Automatic annotation (TrEMBL):
NCBIfam families, alphabetized: GTPase_EngA, small_GTP
GO biological process: ribosome biogenesis
Amino-acid positions noted as binding GTP 2 in the UniProt annotation, renumbered to this chain: 239-246, 286-290, 350-353
Entry binding sites for GTP 1: 8-15, 55-59, 116-119
Subunit organization: Associates with the 50S ribosomal subunit.
GO MF annotations, alphabetized: GTP binding; ribosome binding
Native source organism of the sequence: Sulfurimonas autotrophica
Name by which UniProt lists this protein: GTPase Der
Keyword Repeat: yes
Amino acid sequence: MKKIAIIGRPNVGKSSLFNRLVKKRDAITSDLAGTTRDVKRKTALIRDKEALLLDTGGLDKGCELFDKIKEMSLKAAYKADIILYMVDGKGLPEEDDKKLFYELQAMGKDIALVVNKIDNDKMKEKLWEFYEFGTDAIFGISVSHNRNTVELIDWIYDKIPDEDIIKEEEVEAVSLVEENDDAISDEEFFEEYDEEDDGFIYWDEDEEDVEDDSIFGQNDRIKEFDENDINHIKIAIIGRTNVGKSSLLNALLKEDRSVVSSVAGTTIDPIDETIVYKDKQLTFVDTAGLRRRGKIVGIEKYALMRTKEMLENANMALVVLDASEPFLDLDEKIAGLVDQNRLACVIVLNKWDIAKKEEHDKILKEVRDRFKFLAYAPIITLSAKSGQRVDKLHDIILEINENYSQRIPTSKLNEVIDKALRRHTLPSMHGQVIRIYYATQYETRPPKIAIIMNKPKGLHFTYRRYLTNKLREAFNFSGTPLLFKAKKKGER
């Protein structure tokens, strides 16, 4: 079995890539440098080939601990057959990185330069700076947003011999890598769908069983949950410091509950407040602003950790942005937490009253360009301080909660699928005909849809995008992600 070592400085995303490849949150991931101190070893499926992944500590200077981590990392590299050297694409190429890369390259092993945190199209422009490493095997990706990983996976796959292919009947679960990659289609017809992930489509990564259902049956097998949950909406108000989260909470509650100040970070502990609106319970959680990396100390570090925990328990997130100031990379990172948790979402452009009117259209376009992974989220422009348009937010929350919780009858779902299939047939795979038998929704919050078909791996990303667009046209999924799972007929 081939060994793959993931090596690089602290906090470049090694553990995140490791977790994604092994389909498990095994290594501790955080924004604090040096959280991986041991070499983690896990078997992973790269499509249908088996490999052993090695997640190493960061290569850095400055303390005895990092010297030991560097020693372990280099030992892992000597043992590995394939080396993935990761760097942070948000910074400039480091001379030390180049020296270490050349040192590893001199081992004569297959090595790729993985430039992580290329989170959006604008960041792609920085990728050329890393070509000074002098390697053709360079891949610009974003692990947190699952962008542009297919070429890297193709490269790894080609380096693993065919003798490591696992027979289909021996595979207990399809590799996460195979299911989530944004593959490029050769079918010219689907060029319009062959773009970066725009947040309209997700691939369900859990191991939930999907029961077979009749095409004309009602989806009564949807995962059950307490109906009271639908009437109780847990809303996370998130954003970096001083964008107006506390002011927004006060405006929604129509009272002063948290300390409001122009000093960043004046809200320290989360404050939960519940109101009843049109017979629905709305619980708002106002958190401390997420600080820029390097400024998280003491109680602010606690606030960051608490915010992440709170998002895991929330149904919906209000991502608050300051429309009067330029957006920051930190805004994208915070919004990425919503994307990771598959939450219903509203993007709140606060301080709209003091933003320059001549730049309103430009601001809205920039939001859509920078936050493509939240393309499903509606945008509301308001002023929390003056109360302008805040009252509309309550109704938007209720509407999105309905969308997030809706159950589509199997018959109606398949009417849309059948119409889409008649309009454009499925492309074949290696000359084999791909058939979709039917679709059924098997879970809500967020809506999850199973596509029952003869060859699940043949449901290409571009066709999933096409089906997603047709479903969004037919049903109101505004504000909610939509997840898919391809299953064989009769497969449990």
